[in-house]
Amino acid sequence: MVSKSLNLIIKEVKDLLRDPKILIGMILIPLIMFPVIGLAIRISMESSIELYPKSTIAIVDLDDGKFSNLIIETLKNTPNINLVEINTISISNVLARSMELNTSVLIIIPKGFTLNITLGQNGFIHVFSIIREINIASTGVSGVLGSIIDIIEKTVSYRIISELVSNRNPETVMKPIVVSYSTVFRGEVLDINPQVVLGLLISQSTMLPVAILIILIFAVQIAATSIAIEKEQKTLETLLTLPVGRLTILGSKLIGSSIIAALGSISYMIGFRYYMSSFMEYAPEQLNIPILFPSLSFHVVIGLLIFITLVASLALAIIIAVFAEDVRSAQTLVGYMIPLIIIPGIIAMFSDMNALPLTVKILMYAIPFSYPMIATRSGLIGDYSIAYAGIIYITVFTLVILYVAARLFTTERILTARISLRRDRSSGNL
């Protein structure tokens, strides 16, 4: 009996792995998706790092005064800026020359700039930001532009302060208050700006639910398709005629599917770990703190929760697929499950569970597929209570589903049950 069950399990696993949709969708995609995303982030960072040190800035000085010369001299001595002076008074010629020089920023200092500042008035400059491409990396131009403006304002302000108040440090006058930021996270004090910490944590808490959504959707579609193919090709009917208990057949299918689910969970966690290592390769050194990244306990607990959720979704998809007459109808029936996965995922990504209305909160916790998305966010801050509750709840839910599946497999409904979704043309009824 044991050997028969083992042979059926091995057969089921082999059949599932031979299906390209399962092999690619549940196992290879997580292993490939995360490294590809991490590689894309790394390439973007590398290109940005290579781009910014080569920023070429063009400047036209129509003032030729003390403060305009000071600005030019300061920009020349600023690292990562290649300053090019253009001597012309025609705007069209200036823009054309800037395009030829492949500059990202053009600064025009009009006549009277120094005089206005000397008289205690505002000095005006005109800045052109030259956009050549539309991509994420090109947004870095705004950062370069902001840095240049800060340098100009700081240079002029310091000179004015030093002339008016010779016995005071311009830096102290400009910034009389020095703020040092610390962030308390999971009981530890980190000398890091909270915005930086939140940015890192939010990127993790957003990426995790998206990946879980993809895996769950693939899982239910694949499991349903597998059963539907067997019904369509009569292989399930042949299998049920063998001298093997039907519960043994059901158990082998569920165990085989669970093995695939376990492989999918492991693949997911390995891929996500690689994603995080790639993502942080060019991060500031102050962020290389272990507490800011998912711990081993996080991977174990969340991985177990994902595995149990996958088993539950596979079992439910198998039951639903039993009532389908072909692959298309199986996919349609399983499609009704998808909103129960997507909607909780979206709510978990963009909402605070504690701030949700009581009715919505109850619905969220009642849907078993929502727990992996909710638990990942709380798990990142070291709170695994939701994950543990989810493991218990989904385990009970899975046992109920398995009981229903067992009852179904012990009757002839496994062969005769049908839900037709095609419209009868003659009667117009389903």
Can you tag this structure with a few keywords?
430 residues, alpha/beta, abc type-2 transporter like fold, 2 domains, four-stranded mixed sheet, two-stranded antiparallel ribbon, 6 strands, 6% strand, disordered C terminus
Question: What would your notes on this structure say?
Answer:
About 65% of the residues lie in helices and about 5% in strands. It is an alpha/beta fold and about 425 residues long. It has two domains: about 55-175, abc type-2 transporter like domain (abc type-2 transporter like fold); about 190-415, no CATH class. Strand 5 and strand 6 form a beta hairpin.
State the helical fraction: 55-70%
Q: Shape, please?
A: elongated
What's the N-to-C terminus distance? 43 Å
Query: What is the mean predicted local confidence, pLDDT?
Result: 77
Low-confidence stretches: 423-430
What is the count of DSSP helices, taking H or I runs of 4+ residues? 17
Task: Give the percentage of residues in beta strands.
Answer: 5-15%
How many β-strand stretches? 6
Which structural class best describes the helix and strand composition?
Answer: alpha/beta
Please state the CA-atom Rg, rounded to the nearest Å: 32 Å
* Strand arrangement, major sheet: 2-1-3-4
Question: Biggest sheet, open or closed, and with what strands and sense?
Answer: 4 strands, mixed
Number of domains: 2
- The sequence of SSEs as H and E is HHEHEHEHEHHEEHHHHHHHHHH
Helix and strand arrangement:
Elements: H1 2-18, H2 20-51, E1 55-61, H3 66-76, E2 81-85, H4 91-100, E3 105-109, H5 113-118, E4 126-129, H6 140-164, H7 170-174, E5 183-185, E6 188-190, H8 194-232, H9 235-240, H10 246-279, H11 296-322, H12 327-335, H13 338-350, H14 358-366, H15 371-380, H16 385-409, H17 413-416
Parallel strand pairs: 1-2, 1-3
Antiparallel strand pairs: 3-4, 5-6
Helix pairs in contact: 1-10, 2-8, 2-10, 3-6, 8-10, 8-11, 8-12, 8-13, 8-15, 10-11, 11-12, 11-15, 11-16, 15-16
